[in-house]
Write a structure and sequence with these properties.
By secondary structure, the protein is of the alpha+beta class. Helices cover 31% and strands 32% of the residues. It contains 9 helices and 11 strands. Strands 1, 2, 3, 4, 5, 6, 7, 8, 9, 10 and 11 form an 11-stranded mixed sheet that branches. A hairpin with a 4-residue loop joins β9 and β10. The chain is globular, with a radius of gyration of 22 Å. The two termini are 37 Å apart.
Length: 290
């Protein structure tokens, strides 16, 4: 029986985004504050996912061996380092989050049966890499606060209460929504980027966070005048709002994840993807907005 196991590691390092063939002004336009000399740092968190058959001892791999390999090949070399200088790969392509994940894969794949590298630059930015050439995924997380009421206008209050429970109460209720937006694209071999990170963040802020934050969704967002603002419908609408802006920055929208509460979250994928289903995770499904 096959099983996927995950090993966590971490390292602290600094880096700078800078291309010597560009002028200072051109670098600033390309990379923003990340061009500042001599660089800036992060506490990186790394997850290595490995797949294999369970052995007679109930293990895919001996985790002690895995720990030593990751330390030898990755963290002992990167911890407390200046990434631009530590490995030749980062002199050719800047050490962006997505490119670091790709290079870590390359260095671990001769030693471990890896199926995914996930690298957090900080809790609101991370990259996933699956070994597909220069293709990678980049995720940013953000939040907005909003109120909503779950009720269909063609149903009575009693009927809505039967379907939506407390969430049908006339004056609504609110959430601090946590939003994750994932894009997919090819890592540029010179810049190390899937897309301009500043433009990515700006698109999410401009099309979602600013319009949605501190609103009553049913009344302030025209789309929800006719559509019940469940977490699923909100996520679908966010996906549809972001597809074209993300395409314009040179990437493809892959996934939108919306966390309504610690108990409820949902994920929707871009319709161009193989899986366009809505995935809903609920700890207490009896109350949709609980």
């Amino acid at each position: 029986m096959k099983c996927i196991i995950n090993r966590r590691a971490q390292f602290s390092a600094s880096h700078r985004y800078w291309l010597p063939e560009l002028s200072e002004a051109e670098n600033l336009r390309q990379f923003g504050a990340c061009t500042r000399y001599p660089g800036h740092g992060h506490n990186y968190v790394l997850y290595v996912s490995m797949e294999g058959e369970l052995d007679e001892y109930g293990m895919v791999l001996n985790l002690s061996d895995v720990k030593h390999i990751i330390h030898r090949e990755i963290t002992s070399q990167l911890d407390f380092s200046y990434l631009n200088d530590v490995w030749q790969e980062f002199q050719e392509t800047p050490p962006t989050t997505e490119n670091i994940a790709r290079v870590i894969w390359q260095r671990l794949v001769p030693h471990l049966p890896i199926v995914r590298i996930q690298l957090f630059e900080h809790p609101e930015l991370w990259a996933d890499y699956y070994g597909n050439g220069m293709e990678a995924y980049l995720t940013i997380s953000t939040h907005f606060s909003a109120a909503h009421r779950l009720a269909r206008p063609d149903l009575s209050y009693e009927e809505n209460c039967e379907i939506y429970g407390k969430c049908a109460r006339p004056n609504g209720h609110g959430h601090n929504y946590h939003l994750e937006v994932t894009i997919k694209g090819e890592i540029d071999p010179r810049t190390g980027m899937i897309a301009d990170l500043v433009a990515f963040q700006k698109a999410v802020d401009e099309y979602v966070v600013e319009p949605f934050d501190h609103t009553f969704l049913n009344k302030d967002i025209p789309y929800f005048a006719e559509v019940v603002p469940t977490a699923e419908n909100i996520a679908v609408h966010i996906r549809d709002l972001l597809k074209e802006p993300i395409r314009q920055i040179g990437a493809q929208l892959h996934k939108v994840k919306l966390v309504e509460s610690p108990n409820n979250s949902c994920e929707v994928y871009c319709v161009e993807e193989e899986s366009a289903a809505t995935h809903v995770q609920m700890v207490e499904p009896a109350l949709i907005g609980a």
